[in-house]
Amino acid sequence: MYMRILQLFLFLVFPFSLLAQDNLIINTANRQTQSLNGKWHYIIDPYETGFYNYRFKEKNADDPEAYWNNPVIKNASDRKEHGYSDNYTLNVPGDWNSQAEVFKYYEGTVWYQREFDVSSVAANNRYFLYFGAVNYEAQVYLNGEKLGMHKGGFTPFNFEIPKQLLKEKENFLVVKVDNKRHPDEIPTVNTDWWNYGGITRDVKLISTPETFVQQYAIQLKQEQDIEQAKKKKSFEISGNLKFNHSTSGSVNIQIPELKINKKLAIDGREVSFNLTARKLQLWSPEKPKLYDVQIVFEGNTLSDKIGFRKIEVSGKDILLNGEKLFLRGICLHEEIPQEARRAKNETDAAQLFGWVKDLNANMVRLAHYPHNEYMTRMADSLGVLVWSEIPVYWTINFKNDSVYQKAEKQLEEMIIRDRNKASVIIWSVGNETPVSEARTNFMHNLIKKTKVMDQTRLVSAALEVHYNREENFIDDPLGAYTDVVSVNEYLGWYGDLPGAKAQAKWGVAYDKPLLISETGAGAKGGYHGEKEQRWTEEFQEWYYEETIKMMQQMPENFSGMMPWILADFRSPKRNNPQFQDGWNRKGLIDDKGNKKKAFFTLKEYYENMETQYE
Ligand code: GCB
């Protein structure tokens, strides 16, 4: 009840900013868009002079020294104390840290600015500015007017451009980006990854008709016996479409390959439907079949490629399309190590998935936040299963309701963007959060929210484990609410040496599938020596060998693992000058892109597991 009142209050106070996810437009790749990627001007503004006046109040909209304005100097005597120049540009998309030395450690405000023309502004169309992600807070201004604000560094958002504001020539677009860390944000101040700032993902101008399909969820209906369906060769598909506002008329759902063309009457903002598909080929890692799905409304066709599959838990097992699944996973950050920068485009996704495939993995854990959409689209087409997570990481302020709202909003944006991706099988509501009543309530509420939004995936979180010489026992109270029990384990790196692993016993308080969501050890690529010598590739290889022995004696609910981590990644917390130098070295691939010895150890284990499950 209290939550509801708070939500209503927030809606009244911040109708557009905090609740932007209600207006989120999905599948922007297949809509009419104009890319606004490219070179943008910037001003570094650590004192936020462009935003606050000298009494530290937000500047008036028409203040010529507000950095969203661009007053033209007319007389030599005119005063102007800011400006955008071709001498100061940043590439969009892209983090700022990797683009110039001055940004490497910068955390604060940077103003981004560019101009753009539109070939023709149609009076009957709607126009939206769409951002794939901006880390962390974005204030967006067009032609001197503020369109809105968004918080959350890894999820998309869009703002509608009011009619009359968009011009055909010289639109002046400004984004204030602020990546300062705060205790009451998601994530909080303390993370083991680099706080890359900037407009890190694509920016687009979307044009739509007056009324359009804004969001949809189309999937294999969860409540159907998949074995029966396979036998009868008849599958149920269920879906829901959401328009940008209430409307009437009709809409057609077409899946030509399945000979489906269904006309649906519209009366309101949403339409739900069921379809029956004969001879459907289910999506799986072995055969990642995607169907062309078209939504035809008032002469406009919105296309997508969607795979149909069923993921479920049955007792101690995870089943995909009714068959027992073993997750040969690997964790990764959204980072290109050779260039020490955030990954941002299709080429980057291809590099990362190239490594994943080479490892014989069938799954990725996208740590610790939603990655860009190229990743999940590629996972769909390559047949790689995905765990996608929100950055509820470590010591979030779990007692604060407004912090909960921020986490829930990121969760919603993640789910809305990717719920048509067959590859995504697990939503994770967080990682290694310290057990307390407030934390368990907070995360339980996130799980409940996830279940309301999406019944076709599993929910998990990386839980706490009690290390014990006798038995490592998992009884984290959050495990009562997750579909699978997942834990990060580092026995042999953070405690003991790898030799201790083979004897380790594992116990779980819950009768559910068990996943090891992390395990790993550091090694400097190219550094060799005795296996007992920390930071050598041999130490890491030994750690993996012993981990594999441990995996072979796990309880029978053990359903897969996602070692930490595919490649070395930057972290300000890693300051051993000889071996780390600002990098977390637990990668199986080093910062030059070279595979370490342990890569091959895990690859071989995964090859064996693959044959075992065939
Ligand atoms: C963990 C965290 C991960 C760290 C990793 C490490 O448990 O979930 O974010 O980077 O350990 O390397 O210590």
SSE layout:
Blueprint: H1 2-13, E1 33-35, E2 38-44, E3 89-92, E4 109-116, E5 126-131, E6 137-142, E7 145-151, E8 157-160, E9 171-178, E10 203-208, E11 213-220, H2 226-232, E12 234-255, E13 260-278, E14 291-297, E15 300-306, E16 311-314, E17 317-320, E18 323-324, E19 327-332, E20 335-336, E21 341-342, H3 346-358, E22 363-366, H4 373-382, E23 385-389, H5 401-418, E24 424-431, H6 437-453, E25 458-463, E26 472-474, E27 485-488, E28 506-508, E29 514-518, H7 537-551, E30 558-561, E31 569-570, E32 583-584, H8 597-613
Parallel strand pairs: 19-22, 19-30, 22-23, 23-24, 24-25, 25-27, 26-28, 27-29, 29-30
Antiparallel strand pairs: 1-10, 2-3, 2-4, 4-9, 5-8, 5-10, 6-7, 6-9, 11-12, 12-13, 12-14, 14-15, 16-17, 17-18, 20-21, 31-32
Helix pairs in contact: 3-4, 5-6, 7-8
Bound molecules: (2S,3S,4S,5R)-3,4,5-trihydroxy-6-oxo-oxane-2-carboxylic acid.
Provide keyphrases for this structure:
614 residues, 18% helix, 31% strand, binds (2S,3S,4S,5R)-3,4,5-trihydroxy-6-oxo-oxane-2-carboxylic acid, TIM Barrel, Immunoglobulin-like, alpha/beta, Glyco_hydro_2_cat, glycosidase, 6-stranded antiparallel sheet, 8-stranded parallel beta barrel, Ig-like_fold, globular
